[in-house]
Structures are given as structure tokens and as C-alpha cells.
Here is the input.
Amino acid sequence: EGMAPPQRILFPPEKICMAWQQTQRPGAGLHNLGNTCFLNSVLQCLTYTPPLANYLLSQEHSRSCHQQGFCMMCVMEAHVNKVLHSSASAIQPWTVVNVLTRIGEHFQVGMQEDAHEFLRYTVDAMQRARLSGSSDLDISSQATTIIHQIFGGSLRSRVTCLSCKAISDTYEAFLDIPLDIKAASSLSEALEDFVKPEQLDGENGYKCSK
Here is the structure.
């Protein structure tokens, strides 16, 4: 029962360290290059996510990357190493700004953008980079990248027939969850509301196959 086990493990989960592997002093800040505050805030959040930073600081990705042209993992690796190894009080994040339209073709340099949208596109781009060169992977194997193991998970949607009690489960991978934080007083409450059961009727009615 449940999701099929992965046919391949792309990154061993035991190699992911949730705490900092090295003692890190605060790295350099980021200059605003003209409406780049949305980008700077997201980059700082990702830079100080320990399991991601540990991996990028090891430079394990760039040593084995064979991707031609744009690679978001290589971009983030260069950025994080520059920020955390710089002796300057602040740096200019051109490494990322220069590939903004590669992260999302609708992003424009010099225009204010939505930080959450930029985060989603950046994480998606990192996931695609980790899957590059691995064709015909089953869904479960795609979820074994280091990016998916840090940021993602799987949603189970369960429908139970009220007449015969038959159960139908579907699974969907995710890299972020849309929560209604305005209607909740805490993150836990928002998560509880997200998974709250609902009765399907009318146009949303479910026809049981049993």
C-alpha cells in the first residue's frame, strides 16, 4: 500500500545533515542592484538553510556536473560559497541576477517581483538541475534528489465512499505547500486546515467504482 519504492536513489538520505557541518560566521550581506530585494531575501533564506548550504559548500555538485550551459545548482553553489567565504560586509549577487530570465523567463532585471514566486522557481530550477541527465525516472526516484528531500514531500489524497467505505488514494509530489496563513493563528493551524477532510457533493461529487 502507498507509493511505489524508488527504483534509484539519487542522493543517499543519510548524507543529508540538518545541522551546520562547519561553524559558520555570518556571511556577507547582499547589495540591492535595483529592485532586487525580493531576490536578496530569498537567497539569504536559502544560503542559511543548513542541509542545502552544507551540500553547496562541499562543492560536490560542481565536481560531478556535466550539464551544458545554465545549471541552477552550479549558480547557487557559486553564490553560497561567495557569501559565506567573503570577508566583505556585502557583495553584489550578480551570479544570480545575470541568470534571472533563465530561472523564470517572465522575470525581468530591474523589475520588482514576488519573493515567494521567485523562491518556487529557484527551487524548481535546482530540482531540474539535479534530475538533468537522469531520463525515464519513476516519480518515486525523482523524489530522492537532495533538493526534494530538503524541500519536498508527497501529498496523499484519500477519497472514502460513504456508502461502501471503499478507499481510493492518489499521491502527488510537492516542493511547497500553499497555506492560507491569513485564516490561521499559527503554522500548525494552517497545516491542520490544509489537510482537513471535506465532503464531496454536487459538482464535486465522487462516483464510486465499486
